[in-house]
User: Fold this.
Amino acid sequence: MTMALAIIRRRARRWALNGAAAVALGYILMPLIFVIWLAFFRQEIPSFPPEGYSLKWFAAILDQRKFVDGFRNSIQVGVLATLIGLALGVPAALCLSRFQFKLRTPLANLLLMPLIVPGVVLGTAMYVFHVELEIGLDMDVLGTFYALVAGHIVIVIPWVVRLVTASLAGVDRATEEAAQNLGANPWVTFWRITLPTIRPGIVAGALFGFVTSFGNLEMSLFLVGPGRTTLPIVILQYLEWKIDPTIAAVSVVQILLIGISMLITDRYVKLARVV
Amino acid sequence: MAQLDLNSLSKRYGDFYAARDVSLQVADGEFLVLLGPSGCGKTTTLRMVAGFIEPTAGQVRLGGNDVTFLPPWKRNAGMVFQSYALFPHLTVAQNVAFGLEMRKLLRIEIDRRVEEALALVRLSGFGARLPRQLSGGQQQRVALARALAIRPDVLLLDEPLSNLDAKLRQEVRVEIRELQRQLGLTAVMVTHDQEEALTMADRLVVMNEGSVRQVGTQRDLYERPADRFVAGFVGRSTFLDGTVEAPGRFRSDGGLALTCTGGQPGRAALALRPERVEIGLVKSAGLDNSLPGTVEFVSYLGALIDIHVRLSPNDRLVVQVANRDGGFTPEVGQSVHVGWSASAGLVFNE
Assistant:
């Protein structure tokens, strides 16, 4: 009797847990589901129930140059910022986890700070900085492509540093010594032993850095120049005067892009293991 | 293989000597074991030979060449690490091939030597596996094969068996020793496990607090320990503290008047091996020392029995007897007599 009771209680507990997880997951997925659904509505004004379904809004994206341009700009900025962020973030993570120096902890916190500082604050700060720089250097800074990339590098670096540091913690230092003992100098040791071991962290850092950059709105608002807006800003500007399913279609493309890149990454590096 | 010489090797961190004036000679083909408690400087010494630690003073000579300040990758020393340190992203064969690739050998020669090294450790056919697909014992053998494949001048083993379970450890011990003999390797091993050290070494080096306390064969260390530390660390000893009144006459702090061999007048300790002391119900004639005592504690070890005997308020002795059929079986509280010949006791002046 008590046994049966225990089984019932265990089942009830499992149901409660799964139920709570389902609610949380539903809460997260609901907006995505609605956006995806909306992208296929036939009528211009979103209303329920839909009058019918159509793919015309996807075609409409291509008719609007600013979406295509915004998309291209976002990809360019994201890729460049990610590459430079890796070039800076990986060595930084190596230094932070390998060497003991006086400003180690402050430096680590500084590099992770863009994750905590609100995008608006970050954007304002950079805006002011770019203005000062423009005055000081007497050249175009504000609103240029490279100034935008520079801003995005700042938000890519924390992801790279965080994920690479995490995977460095899993590297057995003795394997590096073993490589040196077998005749590899420090440079060869890094390329042949350390780098392959932390590759999952680097790939994951690059992915999250790129996604962060690609989706960034608040900071970018301060940094873009005329004709060089990124996709999230184009979407916002479009929404300011018109609400039709084109926006939903753009979002679907965006979701697909990020989803596919995650799936591809996951084939090489199990994301569940790194994050 | 080559001869290895350490001349007055020291490593100092601030005021602390991790290793102090360590001088050792390892002959070609000899298996030398550095033995000592943790922090005694044995690992520091090994790492100075490998080149991971730069000595503060002294010299390392390998095969007659001074390698003291050569970086690790320019020395031809094969090392087996405590954690094995296999490259996790490379297969067994790639692990073993690594050192050979660094030496820029031809692919054909590399493949041949990888095969050869894996065969030596009985892992032929495992080349395509990843380290994590192997058991601890197999990983350990890959690490050994990797170190042997480069045909090192000296093989360095840093507590290579400490991550294996007890049974496997005994097997691998024999395996490493046989391989070392068969290939005529010059080898230096570090361990804190005295049984491991005693069973594997040609010669042992006992270290403590950064210094070499004694170098010798198993018999040398056990029969003629150089000091109190060695007497306590290699095998077991009970120490009676007291004073040498005259050479041959020792008086314990508990007031026991004992006969010993040698010793300088002054404070000293008398060390006795538990198995060299006899115990019985009656006083045994013919022994230089024979004393009454009371059994305080008995621990039954199976083949052996440890008996702790109180001789005076200050003196307690451990006696070990074989668990023979019809032999002496003591009980706590029993009155007994213990005795030993003067030559069984070793006197260490303070």
